[in-house]
Amino acid sequence: MTTLALGMPTVRRSPAEAPPTDGRPDVPGLIDRFGRVAHDLRISITSACSLRCTYCMPAEGLPVIPRDELLSATEIARLVGIAVHDLGVREVRFTGGEPLTRGDLVDIIALSAAAAPGTPLSMTTNGIGLDRSAQALKDAGLARVNVSLDTLDREHFTRLTRRDRLPRVLDGIAAAHRAGLGPLKINAVAMRETLHDAPALLAWAIDHGCRLRFIEQMPLDADETWKRDNMVAAEELLEVLRTRFTLEAAGRDDPSAPAEEWLVDGGPATGGIIASGTRSFCSACDRTRLTAEGTVRSCLFGDDETDLRGMLRAGASDAELADRGRAAMWGKQAGHGIDAADFVRPARSMGGIGG
Fold first, then answer.
1. 325 CB contacts (<8 Å, ≥6 apart)?
2. Which pLDDT belongs to residue 4?
3. Is 43 within 8 Å of 93 (Cβ atoms)?
4. Helix (H) / strand (E) containing 326
């Protein structure tokens, strides 16, 4: 695979090349060779972002994807309909980059809601601009949001995101609450420089009716500075949180859920930790991804991508698109392999893949 700078693959499986499906059972769902079935679809709609978080974006941002190479609102909605009606997808989440940077976001939500009535539609966002759009997104059919917020310390926030915009994020969270975009979840990447801000963030989330989930940093940063020995592991994070709270393990409500839950001070409030690196949940993964350019990416850490945009624009039928999606998922790898000696990080960074 050849690449541009900043980890943006330029060669992917062409529309004419279907992934091999030897041994695949004749079932409609998105099953892989290890028996996992994908029910959760993450759709990136842009690689543009209003922040430059060090664990995701380079300081200069990712290369701009030409508008005609992005899936349109109509194309996204068509694929949502196929995913739900033909492939067994039960939940759709829109990601980026930052979804709020797309001027047609409300149209994307409205058309997708019409294509798959009753399917929960959610969005991962940094919250900047949500104060102006939360109600319109709710009216269009968005059910809830996950907001990325790593610290409440304004100086630490500015250093981590390379932008002084913490008040805008907090305004966005407040607007999401007013619009009823809940349950509202906060995603916080556990970083060395903000580790001791974690107890205050958990207390704030509980006080403000948010469900906080800490996430171990993954080797998906565009600057490629991630080092295993500098990563804040779940156990270290728990030690810091326990300086302020009593935490009791509550497990997972859903075996496929990435977050392990912890009762805080006896409950009912909880906090979650997504320990992708130290407590891998790959064996229960039920997610698949669609990049902003319309390629299926079956694993966050797998660089093999299968093009659907070319098929869409060449006049492929819904059945043909569904079959290509099934084939792409059949080849999903067993896991990320971060601990393996021969681990190779993905060519794309998180901002280019979609969270």
1. 30, 82, 83, 87, 288, 296, 306, 308
2. 37
3. yes
4. helix 318-330
d(CA 299, CA 216): 17
Could you tell me where the beta strands, DSSP code E, fall in the chain? 30-31, 37-38, 40-44, 91-95, 121-125, 144-148, 185-190, 211-216, 247-251, 260-264, 270-274, 287-290, 295-297, 306-307
pLDDT at 101: 97
CB neighbour burial string for 146-169, b if at least 16 within 10 angstroms, e if fewer:
bbbbbbbbeebbeebbebebbebb
Are 16 and 64 in contact by the 8 Å Cβ rule? The answer is no
CB–CB of 237/197 below 8 Å?
Answer: no
- On the question of a cis peptide bond just before residue 183, with omega within 30 degrees of 0, the verdict is yes
Element (H, E) at 172: helix 166-179
Residue partners of 189: CB distance under 8 A and separation at least 6: 53, 55, 148, 150, 214, 215, 216, 217
10-residue block means of pLDDT along the chain (355 residues)?
40 67 96 96 95 89 90 98 98 96 98 98 98 98 98 97 98 98 96 96 98 87 70 94 97 84 96 88 91 91 89 98 97 80 69 70
| Total residues found in the chain within this entry | 355
Cis before 63 (ω within 30): no
Q: What is the largest CA-CA distance in the chain?
A: 59
Q: What gap in Å lies between CA 154 and CA 152, rounded to an integer?
A: 6
- Report which of 61, 58, 66 is spatially closest to residue 50, judged by C-alpha positions: 61
Is residue 292 a contact partner of residue 47, using CB atoms and an 8 Å limit? yes
Torsion, Cα of 194, 198, 200, 203 (10° steps): 150
* Domains located in the chain, CATH noted: 32-353 (3.20.20.70)
Sign of CA dihedral 318, 321, 325, 331: positive
Tokens of residue 35, six digits: 């028996």
Single-letter residue type at 277: G
